[in-house]
């Protein structure tokens, strides 16, 4: 019999990555939530949505970003202005000033997510050198979707494994390449009925956990009534092995993490229409009319539900490891890693060529 005592002894022999023990290294919460985020301050030239992402000053002045009475961060779409043709609606896109390395976990307690026709909201992460450094979508959903989605976007060569250990059976696509299937990515739907929309709000939202580990990427979701005790309160350390089977999992066997991913910036954003929510094949699945004409230009109250309410985002790292690359120095570090990776690739190619000769 495999006794608990032997299990405890065996755990001492396992590497840190397998032990999955992480300590708190960064928290975004309360009145200081927005202090270490960068506001994009540009029209949506990234996904071709019909929004202007406001800079910090305008976002706070216009009350599109603020801390509510409950102490939670609100990020929302303008739901009061009547627009004229060719105008875009104001919205929010923020990214962390710091980047977080392989061997980290981020946890987001989210009370409300943006939803409604034309709405495309996401909580995700990306390397500054996208797509070279990869993208991890923890939460993404559009229009009146029944489910939210999780996924990866990478350079060619990364796929979702048929051996992935995960609870969701709703696998939308398996090729993570940005060059495949119109950059659909390798997407897994969250099968929890309350993972999006009005049901998410009515049930008090929930907690997302994303593990960015050398042996793979995993995402858990717990609705408000099922949050495990190990995630409740001011948790200073976590062990992801105590969280059970993740909703989605991308093992390194079919997607080498150190090859396809670099340190990640966390991102919240809400756009309207655009390449995904506005695509006719997607929009007409759950909505009617013309995305821009009937919704963006329509009654601004369409966007009364187009907001994030976030209690906190916490980042954890493995003991003794560098997890946080701070500000511009972190960006430079990522660039150095990119150059180093290209140099090593070139050396490997020269070596292979020499062997061939």
UniProtKB/TrEMBL annotation:
A biological-process GO annotation: glucan catabolic process
Domain GH16: 7-285
InterPro entries named among the record's database cross-references: Beta-glucanase-like (IPR000757), ConA-like_dom_sf (IPR013320), Glycosyl_Hydrlase_16 (IPR050546)
UniProt signal peptide: 1-20
Keywords: Hydrolase, Signal
Entry-linked Gene3D superfamilies: 2.60.120.200
A GO molecular-function descriptor: hydrolase activity, hydrolyzing O-glycosyl compounds
PANTHER family in alphabetical order: GLYCOSIDASE C21B10.07-RELATED, GLYCOSYL HYDROLASE-RELATED
UniProt protein name: Glycoside hydrolase family 16 protein
Upper lineage: Eukaryota, Fungi, Dikarya, Basidiomycota, Agaricomycotina
